[in-house]
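Field notebook, page 472. I keep forgetting to write these up properly, so this time I am using the form the group agreed on. The chain and the ligand, adenosine-5'-diphosphate, are recorded exactly as supplied. Prediction of the bound pose follows.
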Amino acid sequence: MSLQTKWQDLYQAALDKSFSALETIPGVILGFHSTIDGLKRVVPEQIEKILAANPALEEEVSSRLDTLPTEIRTPADLLVGLASSLQRGKALQLMITEEAVYRWVMDNLGYDQIRMGGTSGNMANFLAPLPLPRILVYANPLTKEQAELFADSENLFVINQDGELQHPHRAWSGEGIYAIHWIFEYPKGLRLKIGGEVLESPRANRFIAAWNPVNNKLQIQASFQQHLPKVLPDFSHFVVSGFHILSENYPDGTTWLDYLRPVARFLRETKNEHSHLRFHYEFASIASPAIRRGIIDHILPTVDSLGLNEVELCAILRDRGEDELAQEVESRTSLLPVLRALERLADSTGLRRIQLHDLGYYLTLVDADYASGEKTRDAMLFAATLAASRSAIGRVGTPDEIREGLNVPTASQLFPLMAELARELHEDKFMETGIAAKNGRRIVLVPTKIVAKPVLTVGLGDLISSSSFILG
Ligand code: ADP
């Protein structure tokens, strides 16, 4: 039997098991960030016209092309961030900290389309079609516009003003858009002229500029904190994300640390008082090294599990001065440096589970007493099928539509890299099982399915991480 066939059999079996396993999961909580996304395709002519009409702006952007702002205080910061992301084909997210820039973007660039945004809001809508009994999502402020973006699914809840679980469509109060995250998407090969230079995107990706004065300080609503303990016995999993919206400094003189500490305390206390809950933190592209380090120091000790992509892993490595290892990870010629990086992260943080997702594979390190290798792998295979079907049709569909994800080819280019890892780990069966044991942990690698012409990839990482955490 070929390796392809063997893995296809594993994929098939994992999917069958996963649908029924999802029904037995008590409930999932998603915090702390739901918002509204404004989708905008990058149109070079539009930006070039703005620059032509404003030579001072063009000169400033042009002179700062090889730099990267940590947040957006001026239109130039926004365009420098966009240019940097486009030029490198790398995803990037920055906060807009001035209302004037929010208005400038609205007036000069606008958006093509509005849809659900924020990691928690998105995860809620991705997970709602799955046979999960209950999903509780944090959304503040839950205005009518925000509430309407939630899926019309019976397993979806917020905590309403009376402290009860209620579907967002019925629990909203007030109207208006108080926050918007612009997603500037660009295709591969897009050429943008700035000053005398023509930038060209080496691959399709996106630049996110977020205006979110309400959630920017990540303050968890007092009523949510007050009522949550009452409903916690009905829940088993807590997925935490959205910390990329913190700013380093605020106009009132406070800093990110003033807001990260209370969230960490809230998580720690919730975990201590409700030991049945398992916590996952989903990393995101965070421009500030200080905030990245803060999350490692304050948040990771409060959770069981971490999800991240290869870019985020390299940022963490560089923050720790491990530039050489980051470079090896980036070279993509071997998975040994990736494994080494994840092992160091697990050793230094004490995390019980870390899952990395990259195009073509997911790699998870899990403590042997947290979950079995098979359970971890099957959850990852389910996530990969889900990601494939979602990339292909642009949404998480019915069980039959998800099953179609099985027909997407598995990345066979991964097998040589997997073979190298098998030799390193002295695990004969690794190529067929994807599971190895080392230092009291299971190391689980799955080759994933790659959709050649994806319809939608934004938020795929969140879907992959949350679904494999919940099932695994
Ligand atoms: P986001 O930040 O949007 O959630 P990430 O960059 O963290 O996304 O993760 C995107 C992941 O989606 C990749 O690591 C890869 O595993 C998966 N992915 C991307 N493109 C495809 C594709 N065409 N087919 C299948 N999976 C894909």
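OBSERVATIONS:
- The CA atoms of residues 19 and 131 lie 7 Å apart.
- The chain is about 45% helix and 20% strand.
FOLLOW-UP: compare against the apo run.
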